[in-house]
Each structure stands twice: as C-alpha cells, then as structure tokens.
Design goal:
Blueprint (H helix, E strand, L loop, with lengths): L1 H11 L6 H7 L4 H40 L2 H6 L1 H8 L9 H21 L6 H12 L5 H22 L5
Helix pairs in contact: 1-2, 1-3, 2-3, 3-5, 3-7, 3-8, 6-7
C-alpha cells in the first residue's frame, strides 16, 4: 500500500494529468489516490521550482572540467556535446525557438502557465517556466500550488461524478 502511494506521488510530481487513472488502475483507494496525487504534485513543484537553479549552476560549472578529463574517444564520439562547454561560441539572440517562447509568454502570460502546468505541461516544465519568466511575481508559488490543488479537485470530482469513466 505504501509503495503504491509512493509510486503515485512520484508520478504526480512529474506528470500530473496521467496520475489519477494510473492510481485507480493499480488498485489504490480513491481517498488515498487523491491525497497521494496532491502530495506528489505540490511536492514536485516545490522541488523543481526551488532546486532547479542551484542544480543548473552546478552543472554549468562542472561540465567544462568534465569535458576536459574525459577520454578522447568519448570526446570524439560526442564532439558537439563537449565542444559547447569547452569552446562556447557566441549565441544568436533571436532563434525560432526563442521567438516562439516569447510569443507564448506574451500571448498566455502568467495565468496561461499557471492553468496549463498540471494538465498540458508537466510539473517540471511549468516550474522552470514560472522560475525563469515570472519569479519576480510575489505570489507565483501560491498561484501554482492553487492550480495544482484545483486541478486535483476537478479530476477527483469528475471521477466521483462519473465513476464509469475508469
């Protein structure tokens, strides 16, 4: 039982939308499933939101040293991977990808990311976008936690209203 709850919580911390059907398929009771999904989604968001920045800084600082000490065979096989860290070239300011991200940010904004994170985006992607673009908003964490809890309530209400779906 505890292992099932942990499985559901770990899945909810990454992909929230798929977790309720999975919890019911593996035979977890409805109340425990909802509690595990809420716990996993909120815990996953907080983990990814607060620890992504230090981890990315650590990777950025260690990768040049790692690429210098790896054997030549590895470096030759993955030349593009290590070339980027050892000899960084000047990056373009505007690419198709950066323009698309700016367009999505301007079109949907903060509330688009808040609403879409548990359903369309995954929790780590939503946490990254919230941290990267909207960290200056004072209540962004509360908005995201409210969205995760709200979608959990909506999903559980739909499943309790229409039990034949699963």
């Amino acid at each position: 039982m505890i292992s099932k709850i942990l499985q559901v919580a770990l899945l909810a911390s990454v992909k929230y939308f798929l977790t309720i059907p999975y919890a019911l398929i593996i035979g977890l009771q409805f109340e425990y499933a909802v509690a595990a999904i809420m716990m996993g989604g909120i815990g996953g968001f907080l983990l990814f939101y607060y620890f992504m920045k230090p981890v990315s800084r650590l990777i950025r600082s260690l990768m040049p040293a790692f690429c210098r000490i790896v054997p030549d065979g590895f470096r030759a096989r993955f030349s593009l991977f290590c070339k980027r860290w050892i000899n960084p070239r000047k990056r373009q300011l505007f690419t198709k990808r950066s323009r698309r991200i700016v367009k999505i940010k301007r079109t949907y904004g903060l509330w688009g990311i808040v609403v879409a994170t548990p359903v369309i985006l995954s929790i780590p992607v939503g946490a990254f976008l919230a941290r990267h673009y909207f960290s200056h908003h004072r209540n962004i964490v509360l908005y995201m936690l409210g969205s995760i809890a709200g979608w959990g309530i909506i999903f559980s209400a739909l499943l309790s209203l229409f039990p034949g779906i699963m």
